[in-house]
């Protein structure tokens, strides 16, 4: 991997704690390239005690960092952002090597990830408090916004860069210190952020990365250590529930970006070509491995066959391969379990009466490569209606009326993203209001941006990331009542 980088020094394999590069008490764990199955790095495997040490260092550093002016924090964060952009190609290569997504997508993720550092660096100067007219003649009321303290993050492998910057950006801007435990599949993209943080002059202990293969032990330390005041997690609803229960003992503030089960609805007045393009981006980006990926595609009866035919053509144009090979649009799945889940959903649809329009099998390339798949005749009693596939399966459901599709779309415990294509203005308003989701894409399949509040309702999570709202999750409100 080093030989692929313009700057080989960006490849770090030790933990970064208190401004020091540290070996793991538990030795190392291996990071593999999902496209080839070969080991590309051995990364420091930290013990729970080492993570406790990192929290202590972060606590000490946070007190000083909180004293910086917003403008001072912004200047340092801006340098961090600039370094991410200057090195975007290398960060992308590291990301593709450990995660599998095509290089262009990986570089896109790096720019997207960096945008949160840029945006929140700017926000650091705008953490406004409030004055409130007193309730008695001698009373003056003031509201301060102060950093929560140390924020700890647990993040998944599907966006190894952006899931961390989306949290670290607002945390650092607010004056919090940050301890990141990246997914064991993709620690290199987290560690390179630490390399650049050091270069940017982020003070020692303010940004720490603690790789460890022992997720649940580290999760317990984060929840039980009184030095941590905020837990921020992106991952499955299942693990989110465990963490919320654990965090309850300390009544810790939590942000949770959990699973989705996004409906993608095509009404009969939709621009079908645009709908196909949107479906391709939102279903097959990252090979279907995003929490806002279309999981259920509902198509109105009048355009069902036409949409299916166009989607088939687009899907058959995808080029599956190693993400580092030019022209690849679709990489491997992250691991064998991910392949099993896709197979399970395909088999379930097939046995309950659905049909394969294209794909449906493991790819000839072997490993965890899988054929991009479209299935028709999919109904609400099938597994894919309730569970996230997290892979390259586009299941097409048929519907007749608006009320019917709203009911089907909302019939899930999840509420992250939903999409629909329609032109009739009154329908657009009514459907957007009726969908029980935190994010709605209307006539677009791409909704992620640092300037908007990203997050789910129902069992898809708590809190919002991005936008001026995103920093609130890292701030405490303090009210001062003064008698004059
Ligand atoms: P995914 O399917 O995206 O891997 P998970 O929720 O399983 O979603 O994992 C998200 C992150 O949470 C990963 O970094 C994983 O290692 C971590 N994790 C898994 N189980 C636990 C746990 N019990 N406590 C803390 N972290 C966990």
Automatic annotation (TrEMBL):
<dbReference type="InterPro" id="IPR016160">
    <property type="entry name" value="Ald_DH_CS_CYS"/>
</dbReference>
<dbReference type="InterPro" id="IPR029510">
    <property type="entry name" value="Ald_DH_CS_GLU"/>
</dbReference>
<dbReference type="InterPro" id="IPR050740">
    <property type="entry name" value="Aldehyde_DH_Superfamily"/>
</dbReference>
<dbReference type="InterPro" id="IPR016163">
    <property type="entry name" value="Ald_DH_C"/>
</dbReference>
<keyword id="KW-0560">Oxidoreductase</keyword>
<dbReference type="InterPro" id="IPR016161">
    <property type="entry name" value="Ald_DH/histidinol_DH"/>
</dbReference>
<protein>
    <submittedName>
        <fullName>NAD-dependent succinate-semialdehyde dehydrogenase</fullName>
    </submittedName>
</protein>
<comment type="similarity">
    <text>Belongs to the aldehyde dehydrogenase family.</text>
</comment>
<dbReference type="InterPro" id="IPR016162">
    <property type="entry name" value="Ald_DH_N"/>
</dbReference>
<dbReference type="InterPro" id="IPR010102">
    <property type="entry name" value="Succ_semiAld_DH"/>
</dbReference>
<feature type="active site">
    <location>
        <position position="257"/>
    </location>
</feature>
<dbReference type="InterPro" id="IPR015590">
    <property type="entry name" value="Aldehyde_DH_dom"/>
</dbReference>
<dbReference type="Pfam" id="PF00171">
    <property type="entry name" value="Aldedh"/>
</dbReference>
<feature type="domain" description="Aldehyde dehydrogenase">
    <location>
        <begin position="21"/>
        <end position="480"/>
    </location>
</feature>
């Amino acid at each position: 991997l080093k030989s692929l980088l313009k700057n080989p020094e960006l490849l770090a394999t030790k933990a970064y704690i208190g401004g020091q590069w540290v070996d793991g008490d538990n030795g190392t764990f291996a990071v593999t390239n999902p496209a080839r199955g070969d080991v590309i790095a051995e990364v420091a495997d930290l013990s729970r005690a080492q993570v406790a040490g990192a929290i202590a260092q972060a606590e000490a550093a946070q007190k000083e960092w909180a004293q910086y002016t917003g403008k001072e924090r912004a200047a340092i964060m801006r340098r961090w952002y600039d370094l991410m952009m200057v090195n975007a190609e290398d960060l992308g290569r590291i990301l593709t090597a450990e995660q599998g997504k095509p290089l262009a997508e990986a570089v896109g993720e790096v720019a997207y990830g960096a945008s949160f550092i840029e945006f929140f660096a700017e926000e650091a100067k705008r953490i406004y408090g409030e004055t409130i007219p007193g309730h008695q003649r001698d009373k003056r009321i003031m509201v301060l916004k102060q950093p929560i303290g140390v924020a700890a993050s647990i993040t998944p492998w599907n966006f190894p860069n952006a899931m961390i910057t989306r949290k670290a950006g607002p945390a650092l801007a607010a004056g919090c210190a940050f301890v990141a435990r990246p997914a064991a599949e993709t620690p290199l993209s987290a560690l390179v952020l630490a390399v650049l943080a050091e270069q940017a002059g982020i003070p020692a202990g303010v940004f720490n990365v603690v790789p460890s293969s022992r997720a649940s032990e580290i999760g317990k330390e984060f929840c039980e250590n009184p030095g941590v005041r905020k837990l921020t997690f992106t991952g499955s609803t299942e693990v989110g529930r465990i963490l919320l229960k654990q965090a309850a003992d300390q009544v810790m503030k939590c942000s949770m970006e959990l699973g989705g089960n996004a409906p993608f609805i095509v009404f009969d007045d939709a621009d079908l070509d645009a709908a196909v393009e949107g479906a391709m981006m939102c279903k097959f980006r990252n090979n279907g491995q995003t929490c806002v990926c279309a999981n259920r595609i509902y198509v109105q009866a009048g355009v069902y066959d036409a949409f299916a035919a166009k989607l088939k053509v687009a899907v058959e144009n995808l080029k599956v391969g190693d993400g580092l090979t030019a022209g690849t649009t679709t990489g491997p799945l992250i691991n064998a379990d991910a392949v099993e889940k896709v197979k399970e959903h395909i088999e379930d649809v097939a046995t309950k009466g659905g049909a394969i329009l294209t794909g449906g099998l493991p790819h000839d390339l072997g490993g965890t490569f899988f054929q991009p798949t479209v299935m028709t005749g999919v109904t609400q009693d099938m597994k894919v209606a309730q569970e996230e596939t997290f892979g390259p399966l586009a299941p097409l459901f048929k519907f007749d009326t608006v009320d019917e599709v709203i009911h089907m779309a909302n019939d899930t415990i999840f509420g992250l993203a939903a999409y629909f294509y329609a032109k009739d203005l009154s329908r657009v308003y009514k459907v957007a209001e009726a969908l029980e989701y935190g994010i709605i894409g209307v006539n677009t399949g791409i909704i992620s941006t640092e300037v908007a509040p990203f997050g789910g309702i129902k069992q898809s999570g708590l809190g919002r990331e991005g936008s001026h709202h995103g920093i609130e999750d890292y701030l405490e409100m303090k009210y001062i009542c003064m008698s004059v």
